[in-house]
């Protein structure tokens, strides 16, 4: 059970975030963040830095693309830690939930799509499927935030399952793109099909489309670990 000290910290956070306060405390928004929130922001930073690494590679063909592949899994580590720390310190909040979704969108939605585009999967159909993937990630995260209060929970108040595949599953695509060459999958990754009147599409982009469709499927229920 939360201690009196933890309850006091929650009251202090509510006071700092009070929108009706005519004279808010300086930097009250930042001061209201818990350790778990800082870990979530670290996840967002990793996602943004991976996007910058992709842009740097496009500009100069420099080896920064390796960093793009490393930073997204690092963001995934922060994503796991923030939830564990929030439950450990009894600091779960609506603010933390919103922060988590925004960070996930950058690290596991925009980041993986930008990595694929940077690596050369950029035909018209490739671009459409990558955009579809990001749109599905946005929809998935928005729906989770809107419905999490009504989802079945265990005795500890933890949601029992995800509706649709979690957005961080896109890290599987990042690993595939990063290691495909070393395990002999270059032929599969670079393979493409030409469709009449539409153009070519790569196998990787189709995988992005499938993962995106899984995110918005209500039929898929993934147990939450």
From TrEMBL:
Pfam families reported for this sequence: CDP-OH_P_transf
Locations listed in the record: Endoplasmic reticulum membrane
Gene Ontology CC entries for this record: endoplasmic reticulum membrane
Name the UniProt record assigns to this protein: CDP-diacylglycerol--serine O-phosphatidyltransferase
UniProt xrefs under InterPro entries: CDP-alcohol_PTase-I (IPR050324), CDP-diaglyc--ser_O-PTrfase (IPR004533), CDP-OH_P_trans (IPR000462), CDP-OH_PTrfase_TM_dom (IPR043130), CDP_ALCOHOL_P_TRANSF_CS (IPR048254)
One of the record's GO molecular function terms: CDP-diacylglycerol-serine O-phosphatidyltransferase activity
Keyword Acetylation applies: no
Keywords associated with the record: Endoplasmic reticulum, Lipid biosynthesis, Lipid metabolism, Membrane, Phospholipid biosynthesis, Phospholipid metabolism, Transferase, Transmembrane, Transmembrane helix
């Amino acid at each position: 059970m939360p201690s009196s000290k933890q309850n006091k910290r929650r009251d202090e956070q509510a006071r700092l975030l009070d929108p009706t306060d005519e004279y808010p405390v300086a930097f009250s928004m930042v001061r209201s963040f818990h350790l778990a929130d800082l870990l979530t922001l670290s996840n967002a930073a990793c996602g943004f830095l991976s996007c910058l690494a992709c842009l740097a590679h496009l500009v100069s063909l420099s080896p920064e693309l390796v960093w793009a592949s490393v930073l997204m899994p690092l963001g995934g580590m922060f994503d796991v830690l923030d939830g564990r720390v929030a439950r450990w310190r009894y600091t779960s909040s609506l603010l933390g939930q919103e922060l988590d979704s925004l960070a996930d969108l950058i690290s596991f939605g925009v980041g993986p799509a930008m990595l694929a585009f940077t690596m050369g999967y950029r035909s018209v159909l490739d671009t459409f499927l990558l955009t579809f993937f990001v749109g599905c990630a946005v929809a998935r995260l928005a729906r989770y935030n809107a419905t999490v209060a009504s989802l079945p929970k265990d005795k500890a108040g933890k949601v029992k399952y995800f509706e649709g595949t979690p957005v961080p599953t896109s890290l599987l695509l990042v690993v595939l793109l990063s290691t495909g060459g070393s395990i002999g999958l270059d032929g599969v990754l670079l393979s493409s099909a030409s469709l009449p009147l539409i153009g070519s599409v790569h196998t990787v982009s189709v995988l992005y489309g499938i993962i995106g469709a899984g995110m918005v499927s209500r039929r898929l229920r993934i147990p939450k670990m």
